[in-house]
Amino acid sequence: MSSDAxxxxxxxxxxxxxxxxxxxxxxxxxxxxxxxEAGSDRDSDDxxxxxxxxxxxxxxxxxxSSRAEADEPPTSPPADGSPSEPMExxxxxxxxxxxxxxxxxxxxxxxxxxxxIGLGFEARLSSSSPDSDSxxxxxxxxxxxxxxxxxxxxxxxxxxxxxxxxWSLVRELxxxxxGGRPALLQQDRFRLHLCSSLxxxxxxxxxxxxxxxxxxxxxxxxxxxxxxxxxxxxxxNVVVWDWQRQRKxxxxxxxHKSNIFESKFVPQRxxxxxxxxxxxxxxxxxxxxxxxxCRSVRRLAQHRGSGRKLALPAHSPxxxxxCGEDAVVFNIDLRDRQPDRLLECMDNGKRIPTNxxxxxxxxxxxxxxxxxxxxxxxxxxxxxxxxxxxxRRLCPHRLxxxxxxxxxxxxxxxxxxxxxxxASYNDDDVYLFxxxxxxxxxxxxxxxxxxxxxxxxxxxxxGPRSEYIVSGSDCGNIFFWDKNTEAIVQCMPGDEKGVVNxxxxxxxxxxxxxxxxxxxxxxxxxxxxxxxxxxxxxxxVQRNLQERVxxxxxxxxxxxxxxWTLMQQVFGAQRRARHQLFSNELDLQSSDESDxxxxxxxxxxxxxx
Length: 609
Prior knowledge:
Elements: H1 2-16, H2 38-54, H3 63-70, E1 101-103, E2 106-107, H4 113-127, H5 130-158, H6 169-178, H7 183-195, H8 198-202, E3 204-211, E4 217-222, E5 229-233, E6 237-242, E7 247-253, E8 260-265, E9 273-278, E10 282-288, E11 294-302, E12 307-311, E13 319-324, E14 328-333, E15 340-344, E16 346-347, E17 350-351, E18 354-359, E19 366-371, E20 376-380, E21 391-394, H9 397-400, E22 409-414, E23 420-425, E24 430-434, E25 445-447, E26 459-462, E27 468-472, E28 477-482, E29 488-493, E30 500-505, E31 511-516, E32 520-526, H10 537-551, H11 558-592
Antiparallel strand pairs: 1-2, 3-32, 4-5, 5-6, 6-7, 8-9, 9-10, 10-11, 12-13, 13-14, 14-15, 16-17, 18-19, 19-20, 20-21, 22-23, 23-24, 24-25, 26-27, 27-28, 28-29, 30-31, 31-32
Helix pairs in contact: 5-10, 6-7
């Protein structure tokens, strides 16, 4: 025992002094620069070997133990500056100092970073304990299983049965020519059947881009006749488009101080009044002359947080409902100077901020809120303030016990007759509810394949009788699902910067207006000669599902929740900085070009940021 210990001590001194070593007889150790206090090093080495022989755990300060636990090839050079050579990770009696093999007859070089990565991985494999080997095998198996699961889900989404084609041009023309009682009904039936047909959805293609805004377009709204389209943007302007002529009708400064999130025509006002809300929390009303000049803009209400969305009851043209991040819903009568505080969204004594609001198309007393939690709340304003519950909560049951992420409803709307509700959840799918179901009811349909994470996505019905579901996606595509079969029937690239947020179907024609992170408004019309080939959609769906799993923070993880909040703050800061950049550029242009008042971009031309 004494001769072996003396032999090992002599070898380790030789390594420290950069002289070739003999038999190592143990695990490899990282060479260190030689020290002047040789006696101190020798005592430390003897004490370390004594503990190893007795089975006592190594002290935290021992150099040999820390190097053995590092599981990495040595990288520190000797004291004289000559390059060091890594020793074998696992040796035996007579093993010499050499570079560990990476493959058959191949050696790794410390000067190549890629080889160092491979060297470290091979060293970890060769020196790992049985427990670490089993963990690595488990991780690889879990990764392979997750990828296989994503592929299987994508295949299941794409294999859902597609609806049958039920529309025939010859048959519909024949019915229209024969007429009926009354003849106007036959004309209307022809239009309804065309707009609701799978034929029209499959042939949607980009018609035109409406360019004038200098920021992200956050909201779209057709007037009741469908000949005008209003859009609001981060540039604080509201633009009204004559979309059929593909030009701007007029625009005005909204008076808001931050990003516009909603702008809508007030019904039964001859399209001369537009109400809007924005990040500054204000709800403002603009009065427009028939010639397109803004006569006045006044404030109707003020939220304490960001204003989100507006709702206009179908049979109450003087009423506007607004919701915001302060969880308050205002009932605004345009004839009054002060709004009424209708309710504050609460759950177990806690305020629940809201993302969107929508009114029932036939009953002005019923409206819904898409809240920043897992529930869609359906209210009856006649019950507000009474002892009975004023609302019903709807949520997919699969999300109630799911702790993978912080789910919230980004948008929810009624169908054309109010019988159904479609809701989009962040980092999850789109769900369809029966509006007549009781409190706590489950969804009746689930639509998968898109990605809802980066922004607050909208969702909508498409078709005169709400035959389809349409939503934007973080991948930049627009997804159409058949409402009954849940199959993807159309998918179109809808945004060059990668995110589609707003989708506004035309009230009477097979036309769709969309917007996102791009500065323009895109119009889609059913004019394609043949249906689009959707063979590429499965790969997109699989990628969206995989990114959802990889990026969704765990609700049980403080780090994940904190990162989620930080990302939301960073995204908002980027948008505000972009708006400030636009404002500075406009101020600079106005100061440098004050001689020419008509020097701005003409309607229909894109302004560069």
